[in-house]
Amino acid sequence: MKEVSKRETILDAALSVVAAKGYISTKVEDIARKAGVAKGTVYLYFKDKSDIYIGLVDSILSKGLELVREIDSRPLSQREKLSEVFAAWVRGMHEQPGMVPLVSMESINLAAREVDRFKQSIKPRIRELIEAIAAIVRPGIEAGEFRRVDPYMAALMFVHSFPMNIMVVRHKLPVQDPVGTTLDMFFHGILPGTEPKPNHNGNHRKPL
Amino acid sequence: MKEVSKRETILDAALSVVAAKGYISTKVEDIARKAGVAKGTVYLYFKDKSDIYIGLVDSILSKGLELVREIDSRPLSQREKLSEVFAAWVRGMHEQPGMVPLVSMESINLAAREVDRFKQSIKPRIRELIEAIAAIVRPGIEAGEFRRVDPYMAALMFVHSFPMNIMVVRHKLPVQDPVGTTLDMFFHGILPGTEPKPNHNGNHRKPL
Amino acid sequence: MKEVSKRETILDAALSVVAAKGYISTKVEDIARKAGVAKGTVYLYFKDKSDIYIGLVDSILSKGLELVREIDSRPLSQREKLSEVFAAWVRGMHEQPGMVPLVSMESINLAAREVDRFKQSIKPRIRELIEAIAAIVRPGIEAGEFRRVDPYMAALMFVHSFPMNIMVVRHKLPVQDPVGTTLDMFFHGILPGTEPKPNHNGNHRKPL
Amino acid sequence: MKEVSKRETILDAALSVVAAKGYISTKVEDIARKAGVAKGTVYLYFKDKSDIYIGLVDSILSKGLELVREIDSRPLSQREKLSEVFAAWVRGMHEQPGMVPLVSMESINLAAREVDRFKQSIKPRIRELIEAIAAIVRPGIEAGEFRRVDPYMAALMFVHSFPMNIMVVRHKLPVQDPVGTTLDMFFHGILPGTEPKPNHNGNHRKPL
DNA sequence: GATGAATGAGCATTCATTCAT
DNA sequence: TATGAATGAATGCTCATTCAT
Q1: Per-domain residue ranges for chain C?
Q2: What is the pLDDT of residues B99-126, one digit of tens each?
Q3: pTM value surpassing 0.90
Q4: A167-181, C23-37, D188-202 — which one is most confidently predicted on average?
Q5: What's the CATH fold of domain D48-208?
Q6: CA B89, CA B169: separation in Å to the nearest integer?
Q7: CATH 3.30.565.10 is right for the domain spanning B1-46
């Protein structure tokens, strides 16, 4: 229905291939084949291989950011917004498991000459994403919904909780409701003294 | 005291080179040169290039684990132990900045055939490390020092807070006392209701 | 006429280089240079170095086999056919001296893991060639033209006489008409009792 | 019982290893290990790797030559001597299968710089061996026991019949009494007209 | 725009040889 | 004599990138 540009077709192919084999093991030809185009065609839309990778991460981050902004505009409490963002990300991860290894900014092992360009391109997008989370936290603090933590740090912690959550799912660790558990710890910490609302998992308890 | 095995010499060299250039960009010859040995010598101690990488991560994790166990044996509260582990890791990171990109389990971009071997070797070590943290959390819960969270998840969150903290330092984000802030959020979450002890940063507030 | 496939071009280059330097000493780059292509191009047509070698031997054996079959179809006595095959092989050897070291099945010194592949590919071709010779011997026996020897053994002896003949030429041994001499011994043996027809070389004599 | 020199110990080890894996695949360390000495020790007795190979072939050829001379001194007909030499070689081959790939002078695929030295050393030994065979043929011709063939060519054919015979055994070709058959063809050729003595195989027939 | 055959720089790995002990 | 840890030259192979069609 939607006219998908060839660039996007290639990017989609790249996502699935890179997800399956990792960036290093992925050959440009693999991506081309998966996208149903010739190798040369890829170079009509991307400067070089790392440009594909940058495009890939950029695309994922853009979608993540879009999601955050959409949810931020809903009439929810800030806490509910964060919960919803997290849940949406996890859902997205299940639909596109390929994005998992891509979300960590440190996860790159590019050739030396590519690293700088990558950082130039991606760092601002990550910061943008974190800012968008911080923009949810900040009014929450103002409204007394959250403690007076550093919003940027809170956003960082939130973002970093995501790959952790993935790890649980990936390695099939025996944790019930990992999303709920992660958010629970994110919101209440591990010290007693907050009063998490009871939930069906029951893996919480009244503080002393 | 100075009696260092050649294997360790090579591993040290590998750490500094890989830290500086990334695994992919690091040539075995770079490592050899840095270690002051010939290329062939490296292959007397390591099967192949990825074996060096495995050795590297393994060594770092071992040191981290050792540290955890040592601190766990001190006469401290469980919370103090966690704080101390975190601070020690951060100190270590400043001494060995190379370890930073290596601590994330997802940070690998090895060639396809190497991935399995890597996971075989490293996964158990990571799990061991997380278990050691969980072994601090668990008695804390029993003693009522912590909420009744899933100890394994708490350990995961703790471990994942580390790279986040690194990011702050790395990118020189304007956060005062990132270690304290990170631990604060880890312990108290971002919701009001716990009563963190006032500190000079003032980033705490009365719960509602 | 001149339309030669690139694969054949490479094979021709490989023949002359391998003939001159031996398989081991031949670098893939040598072959590429000789063929007027880049190193990578060679790998578009051959899986690896030993695949070139297999292709080489296969090609030579195919040509030898083709020759045998063509001659077998001519209206000659079986003995004349064998003589003609031998002479044609020797002529071919003078045009393509490179094939010499390749005709012996034992002449291989490949790396261990390559040996199996080589044998898989080449053994059947050699057997085919020997069978084609045996197919000339067999009707000769039926017709009483040859003694009732084992056709397969006779074919083997015939084939093995070829490298012997080459050796004579190669090392410039002082033998007149080595081809005639070789065939003479192949047909009559060294015992007296057969009556070889006098020929212009005169290097034969009446048996007692 | 017999005081075996270390040089011979190494040579024996080399034979079995080279026989099993081929010259190229054989590492000096393999030979050393098999001989029960350290790698460096090998270099006390051999200049380099190809020197071992030369020593190996030289040793085999020497034994073969010794055998020929011993048999030549026995009170037998020249024909019986040749038969006996052939049979003895085949017996030796069964005891030391490793020698098989080594007997053909063309079977070498040494590195370029080694080829010349090899030929310098080995060619004279091969020629010596062939001369020793020719020295059996020559008086046979004088005595009318053999046709007036070129003795050197006959010797060559004789020597080249050996690897052929090996091939039959190696590849388990369905030939009864390969030694007898080979000698039969060597002595009588394949044409009718000689009168081989009837034997139990019955693979003889009346000449026309 | 699209193709895919051709390119060649780049690198891990091997192993014969040396030499300090 | 004997050792075996250390060396480093040598080379097969990959794959991102180009460009003639």
Answers
A1: 1-46, 48-208
A2: 555 554 334 455 555 667 777 888 888 8
A3: no
A4: C23-37
A5: Tetracycline Repressor; domain 2 (1.10.357)
A6: 13
A7: no
